[in-house]
User: What shape does this take?
Amino acid sequence: MEIRKTDAGQGWQWIAGGFGLFRKNPPIWIVLFVIYFLAVIVVSIVPVVGPLVMTLLAPVFTAGFMLACRDVEAGEELELGYLIAGFKHNTGQLITVGGLYLVGSITILGLMMMGGGGAILGSAALGQMQGADPTEVMVGAVGGMLIALLVALALLIPLLMAYWFAPALVVLRNMTAMDAMKHSFFGCLRNMWPFLVYGVIAFILMMIAM
Assistant: This one.
């Protein structure tokens, strides 16, 4: 599959096109998202296991929404059944996408905690050996934690790029999880400017809505 490169204005077209699909049946779209939101809350309440399960299943639900968008664009009626449509199309590969994202997220979180914890312990040990001011020790520890956080964010961005289009590619193009995430990453990489426009506009609209 050829990855197209679009101009920056496409970022606004993504939002306008999405709103166009929403306008075709606002009540059902709202009900679908409310049910999904409630399902996320209910499952996430379960300690430890709940958030992990929801991360694995998120691409499956996303795929259902993508199938709904495709069919609504083709003129078909929107139904509540689309919420579970992802469980009928390449479910195993969709869950694999969630699993790869989960493993990547846990790995990045672990590295951040190790880096931040190491910065705190290192600053404390150095302060005890040199008799440093506690304030200076604290500043050093906070600085180390900020560096660890920035490194984690730098690693998280490529992971999100690989995840962004993957559910749609799996369910609409019948790709495997690995191929979908690879194409998603390079698709985002080739379209950084429209993504920047999309992100800025979406952030402004979110602030207005809130």
